[in-house]
Design a protein that fits this description.
The complex is a heterodimer of chains A (about 550) and B (about 575). Chain A has about 550 residues and is mainly beta. In chain A, the strands form 11 sheets. Chain A has a 7-stranded antiparallel β-sheet with strand order 30-31-32-33-34-35-36. Chain A has a 5-stranded mixed β-sheet with strand order 5-6-9-10-14. Chain A has a 4-stranded antiparallel β-sheet with strand order 1-2-3-4, with no helix packed on it. In chain A, strand 11 and strand 12 form a beta hairpin. The radius of gyration of chain A is 27 Å and the shape is globular. Chain B has about 575 residues and is an all-beta fold. In chain B, a hairpin with a 5-residue loop joins strand 11 and strand 12. Chains A and B meet through strand 19, strand 24 and strand 25 of A and strand 42 and strand 43 of B.
Chain lengths: ~550, ~575
């Protein structure tokens, strides 16, 4: 080749190199995050502004697919049912580039795809999902928003097959509203994790869902039936009392009961607010406003003093009707408040229970009357017992019976295995402690507390399968073994099945397979992995065998050109 | 205290702060001793003045002096008429050999010493001295919606301002003690402020709502100096015009208006000062007694609703004076025994005087004084009943008087009886005596005179905290006794006499509640309350009752008389706003 030819060749080569995707030059993220979804695992590759979706089409296959989620993903939240992943990206706002922020909704099934993209006006950093998957609230634009009360509502639609949507069909719009609007000067800041959604509540004018907003000194209620068509209309603000000089009540928790019948046959929703900085609890009954009132909704309010710091509240049904149950662990008591008269009754619990969860639906039949007295589960961090509180009157205890079960471990966390699914009509909870080489599975119907022992390893973690019938037990970092606890049977003992893994385990995620089965993806990262920073050992979730596993590495290289 | 004010959509000023809450109303009439002795029934005759040999009282003439039984005061000199009235039937079969002992000990009188929410139409008003706001609760609204209206500095004393010509005209007047002014609050209108004299702590509003008088009640002033005469009053023209400060007699006791609302009367320790409202100016002073040495504290002056007459009773005296508020003429009625109580019906047509002979006598007496007829046509006789009583409570329509005693330690079982006296029977008065089984503290007749609520003390050998009785008055049915877990505290009765509320309170045991009573059937339901009751009353327009309770943010329970069990609804936090964007 003559000199000119070489020069030409070099020029062509240089030009061609410049066309090669700069992704190759981008260092991989050091601590990429993973999210287990229903049929896939999302690996957030923020370095390349994408998700790498891992799937298991068959028992021995692992699929990878890269999905763009906008520039600079900053916040991601899976839906409660793990069918969707919501990713907020802040885009780029600079003199040289202007890439708008986005919200991307990804189908987390066995065939991942983008379902929706919402273009945003500012880089928001917080996202709250509606458990019923009708809404997403996008908030906290931080330094980019003049008014922190500007939030976005994204209406979600149940796309059946996101893969078949065109890019245009995926583009959706958000609705921006200003909390309070022009009519109400709110004046107090939003709290962290301020937003929560209710189910449908009895409401003047018809049942509807409400967005509850906890602020520093008020509770705001946003009518979701009005928010799109009339974004600044029908917002209600409930003021908290002044608890000390220049200090107002901080709403720490808001609970509700959607519908309670009155003696006259009318139904009303009830709300209650626990203050984080006072011993008062506020109770509201939602009523129709007076005929000559400008508003259509009025809130009959009451304040109850409970003599101690409450840690949890919940509306419960008792033989005497609706009550608000308040846990006061400092006094080892529960307080039952009649919402109509604010008369309180103290119930000795003999233990400092901190948390309460109604489990009535899980321990009663579907045909039980609406006014069946509630059953509640009580527990507390550091307490080696849980209690079933049945709110039916007994001959010796007017406020029900307390059935205490020894857990032998101090319970730090109690989690329902599944919210909606019952395994063979039995509901179970996981009771996780600290510093113990074991955890408990609580069988609600029989009130059995079953042990699951992890040999000599108090630092274990658990990963619950979305179906609720398996728990994976592992120790992140060094151990080369995982164990699967089978919760599907009703045996007195829960069988655990250890599986040897060649490499150190980072996490285990249980997903649906494309062929109808279930796969367990054991993720590995860091120095134990070659060819990139992420690798997977693929197991059959229902019959895991180390001899029947498959190993895959270089997963983050997928899709890089 | 920090106050955060925002302009809400509803035009209110939601605040945070401590609300004062309302205070209790408990009104009990006083009375004198009586002795439930054996003896004949009284004889009712009607004949002229006579000498009662049992007491040595001689009667007759326009002015008289007499020698009553030992311990009775001298009769005052009357400027108009003076009448000495003896018992019908002379000695009447009573034992005249009993040594006339000392006068009976005074009846226990439970005065109203509290301020309460006031009701106008369908609204309840309650003042919060701390925040400077008055909360108005709409009792007709399902949620008990509350508006807050701005008053002055420390609004404390609140009165309703009624407008008989427009029941929907809801207004209240409040005294702001730290700014020395009064604010007239009217729904749907801007507040109107009137300056008052310094230290005003009481208000009286005329029946039409056109006038109010702010005055200072020395009895509620803490440690008043002997030189504090509190002689200033302020007349407030509520329909427009400038307020005016005037000087009246020493230490006012009460204020009233005449029927035409051309004059106001201020009862003071020195007598009665008359104010001409057209000025307004002080135009006169009437003496109520000729005795310069008498203690004003022993004097009980009541003005009739039409403002035409003042009735005067003096402790330990057998005399009652009626003073004309037109010309000041006094007519004195002297009775054979000490007048221990005098009660005027609400309609002002009848006063009943209770006559209690000295301890040991088996009877008590009474006299009916029709107003104004008695002035020119005095009753010819006083009557005696073989029962011991020293207090009286007359029904609103004057048809019934309830006679009783609160001095149990002197009269034992007599304190466990109530005598029901029909004043307008075709054959004259008729009476019956009802056993209520526990000592009486106070008696409250219903406005329609069909029933009465009797508050009682538990007997010494009872373990219950208190009791009250539901006494059918119109029907000859035995009373119903209700034992309570806490001491009865206050009573409210509906205008139609259908229901009553009796609050109970025991701070030590933290027992708080209200008994909802259906008077016709004498059925009662107990409603537990979350905090101590302070006041109870009726919102007649809604056929509901209320119990205001102690709570720093304000708490009230509304009881619906149309609903079984009262269907109580409580609201707490009067100034906690809820705003709605529209």
């Amino acid at each position: 080749m003559d000199k000119i030819g070489r020069l030409v060749w070099i020029a062509v080569a240089i030009t061609a190199c410049k066309d090669i995707d700069t992704d190759w030059d981008t260092p991989a993220a050091a601590d990429y995050k993973t999210v287990g979804l229903k049929g896939s695992v999302a690996v957030v590759d923020s370095a390349l502004d994408r998700l790498v979706m891992l799937t298991a089409p068959t028992q021995h296959e692992l699929g990878t697919e890269a999905i763009s989620v906008g520039k600079n993903p900053t916040h991601w939240v899976p839906s409660a049912d793990r069918e969707r992943l919501f990713v907020l990206s802040r885009g780029v706002q600079s003199a040289r580039e202007d890439i708008p922020p986005t919200l991307t909704v990804v189908d987390g099934g066995t065939r991942p795809a983008v379902c929706s993209r919402f273009e945003l006006d500012k880089p928001y950093e917080q996202l709250t999902l509606d458990p019923e998957r009708q809404w997403a609230v996008i908030h906290n634009a931080d330094t980019y928003a003049e008014n922190p009360d500007e939030i976005l509502f994204a209406r979600l639609s149940p796309e059946a097959n996101c893969r078949q949507l065109s890019e245009d069909e995926r583009q959706r719009e958000v609705v921006q509203i200003t909390l309070g609007g022009e009519a109400i000067d709110l004046g107090d800041a939003l709290q962290q994790d301020a937003f929560s959604f209710t189910q449908e509540l009895e409401w003047p004018g018809g049942a509807r869902r409400i967005l509850v907003v906890r602020r520093a000194e008020t509770v705001q209620l946003v009518d979701l039936s009005e928010v799109v068509d009339h974004p600044e209309r029908a917002q209600h603000v409930l003021e908290m009392p002044e608890v000390r000089d220049n200090e107002f009540g901080l709403p720490a928790q808001v609970v509700y009961h959607p519908s309670v019948p009155d003696p006259d046959g009318s139904h009303h929703a009830w709300l209650a607010v626990r203050l984080g900085n006072d011993t008062s609890v506020l109770i509201y009954k939602v009523e129709s406003a007076a005929e000559d009132s400008e508003a259509s909704v009025a809130f009959n309010r009451n304040i109850a003093s409970i003599g101690g710091t409450a840690t949890d509240i919940e509306f419960v049904m008792t033989p005497e009707g609706l009550k608000l149950a308040v846990l006061v662990p400092s006094r080892r008591e529960a307080i039952l408040i009649d919402p109509h008269t604010i008369v309180t009754d103290s119930i000795d619990l003999s233990a400092p229970y901190e948390r309460l969860a109604r489990i009535t639906d899980e321990v009663t039949t579907a045909t039980a009357p609406e006014d069946t007295p509630d059953v509640a589960l009580l527990w507390a961090s550091g307490q080696p017992s849980i209690a079933f509180w049945t709110l039916a009157r007994t001959s010796t205890r007017p406020w029900g019976s307390l059935d205490v079960r020894d857990t032998e471990i101090t319970v730090e966390n109690a989690t329902s295995v599944t919210d909606d699914v019952r395994l063979d009509q039995r509901s179970r909870w996981l009771l996780l402690g600290s510093g113990a080489s074991e955890f408990r599975v609580l069988e609600l119907l029989d009130r059995d507390v079953r042990r699951v022992v992890i040999a000599n390893d108090p630092s274990f973690e658990v990963s619950l399968a979305p179906t609720g019938d398996r728990v994976w037990i592992y120790s992140p970092g060094n151990a080369r073994e995982v164990a699967m606890a089978d919760l599907s049977g009703d045996l007195l003992r829960i069988p655990t099945r250890p599986v040897y893994i060649e490499r150190a385990v980072d996490t285990v995620l249980d997903i649906e397979r494309g062929d109808g089965g279930y796969a367990a993806l054991v993720l590995h990262r860091g120095s134990s992995v070659t060819h990139g920073t992420l690798a997977v050992t693929l197991l059959d979730a229902e019959e895991p065998e180390s001899t029947d596993s498959r190993f895959f590495s270089g997963l983050l290289l997928g899709g890089v050109k | 205290m920090s106050i955060r004010a925002r302009q809400g959509v509803m035009g209110t000023h939601p605040l945070k702060g401590l609300a004062a809450g309302a205070l209790a109303v408990l009104i009990v009439s006083c009375g004198s001793e009586s002795d439930a002795g054996e003896g004949d029934d009284d004889d009712d005759y009607a004949y002229g003045p006579q000498t009662d040999t049992s007491t040595g009282v001689s009667s007759g003439g326009t002015a008289s002096s007499y020698l009553p039984g030992a311990g009775a005061a001298m009769s005052p000199t009357a400027t108009g008429g003076a009448y000495v009235i003896g018992y019908a039937g002379g000695s009447g079969g009573y034992d005249q050999t009993v040594d006339a002992g000392p006068p009976p000990p005074p009846e226990e009188e439970v005065e109203s010493a509290y301020r309460a929410p006031v009701a106008t139409g369908s609204y309840l008003w309650t003042a919060n001295p701390s925040s400077g706001y008055v909360a108005v609760i709409d009792v007709s609204s399902p949620a008990l919606e509350i508006q807050t209206l701005e008053a002055g500095n420390a609004p404390t004393y609140l009165v309703a301002v009624s407008n008989p010509e427009d029941p929907n005209d809801n207004a209240a007047l409040v005294l702001n003690v730290l700014s020395d002014d009064a604010t007239l609050l009217r729904m749907g209108s801007d507040p109107v402020t009137f300056s008052t004299h310094q230290g005003a702590n009481s208000l009286e509003v005329s029946p039409s709502g056109a006038w109010a008088v702010a005055w200072t009640d020395a009895r509620v002033v803490e440690d008043p100096d002997p030189l504090d005469t509190f002689q200033e009053v302020t007349v407030l023209p509520l329909e427009g015009g400038a307020e005016k400060r005037l000087s009246v007699g020493v230490r006012p006791i009460s204020v009233a208006f005449d029927g035409a609302e051309t004059r106001a009367f201020v009862v003071t320790e020195e007598g009665i000062t008359t104010i001409d409202l057209s000025g307004p100016n002080v135009v006169g002073h009437f003496e109520v007694t000729d005795d310069p040495l008498d203690d004003p504290a022993l004097r009980d002056v009541t003005i009739t609703p039409d403002g035409a007459w003042a009735l005067v009773r003096v402790d330990d005296s057998p005399s009652v004076g009626i003073v004309s508020l037109t010309d000041g003429e006094r007519t004195v009625f002297t009775f054979p025994d000490t007048v221990t109580d005098l009660d005027l019906s609400r309609d002002g047509t009848l006063a009943v005087a209770v006559l209690a002979p000295p301890t040991g006598q088996p009877y008590s007496g009474f006299a009916l004084l029709p107003i104004p007829e008695s002035v020119t046509d005095p009753p010819e006789v006083a009557e005696r009943i073989s029962a011991r009583f020293g207090s009286v409570s007359v029904s609103d329509d004057a048809s019934v008087a309830l006679l009783y005693t609160t001095v149990q330690q002197e009269y034992g079982e007599a304190a466990e009886r109530v005598t029901i006296l029909e004043t307008q029977g075709t054959e004259g008065t008729e009476h019956r005596i009802e056993e209520v089984r526990a000592p009486v503290r106070a008696v409250f007749p219903s406005p329609d005179a069909s029933s009465a609520i009797v508050l009682q003390e538990p007997p010494a050998d009872s373990t219950r905290a208190g009791a009250f009785s539901i006494v059918p008055v119109a029907a000859d049915i035995r009373p119903t006794l209700v034992a309570t877990e806490a001491r009865p505290h206050a009573v409210a009765i509906t205008p139609d006499g259908s229901h009553a509320l009796v609050t109970v309170r025991d701070d030590d045991k933290a027992v708080f509640g209200v008994h909802l009573v259906e008077l016709a059937t004498r059925r009662q339901d107990f409603i537990e309350l979350a905090s101590a009751p302070l006041a109870t009353g009726i919102v007649a327009a809604e056929n509901k009752g209320y119990v205001a309770q102690e709570h720093p943010e304000g708490r009230i329970t509304i009881i619906d008389f149309d609903e079984p069990g009262g269907s109580p609804r409580t609201v707490t936090g009067f100034e906690l706003g809820s705003r709605t964007a529209r």
